[in-house]
Amino acid sequence: MIKISQACLLSFVFSMVAVIGCGGGSNEELVDVVPVTGKITLNGEPLKGAAITFMPQDEGMGRPCFGATDDDGAYVIKTQDGRKGCPVGKFKVIISKFAMEDGTPVGEDPEAAALGMEHLPAQYSSGEQTQLSADVPEGGKTFDFPLEVKKK
Q1: Is residue 72 assigned to a domain?
Q2: CATH number of the domain to which 55 belongs
Q3: What is the pTM of this model?
Q4: Long-range CB contact pairs, 125-129, < 8 A, 24+
Q5: Is residue 23 included in any domain, yes or no?
Q6: What is the pLDDT along the chain (152 residues), one digit of tens a residue?
Q7: DSSP conformation letters of 6-65
Q8: Domain count, the chain
């Protein structure tokens, strides 16, 4: 587990805003999307409360698409404007489990969130270091991600 300071958390938030953009001029509504769903497990168990991001790797694919896992580790990818699915193409996949040290959700209080930490290693949770990818075909696809982390 990685502890994150408030400064680091703010840096992360600002970098995500820069990557995602701030409305206006988006061609996202012009991009066709296909269904993308799946299940994320950690050491064979459903990973609930995780965020998953599909970062487009090809030009003209629009903005990143997002999802969150339920209690069974299942997710549905959506566009920023709320449509279910994402464009066809190649994606870098980022899976993050940001929570308090004991695994409980950080909640909406910014001061409490500053005490949260990333529970997954950078090979899954870092945009620069992720080893996960997805090649979304016409018609969509189910992508399951069986993550493995050695327990300390």
Answers
A1: yes
A2: 2.60.40.10
A3: 0.78
A4: 125/94, 125/95, 125/96, 125/97, 126/94, 127/19, 127/53, 127/55, 127/92, 127/94
A5: no
A6: 444 444 344 334 434 443 444 444 444 557 899 999 999 999 999 999 999 999 999 887 789 999 999 999 999 999 999 999 999 999 999 999 988 888 778 777 777 778 888 999 999 999 999 999 999 999 999 999 999 998 76
A7: HHHHHHHHHHHHHHH--SSS--GGGS--B-EEEEEEETTEE-TT-EEEEEE-STTS-S-E
A8: 1
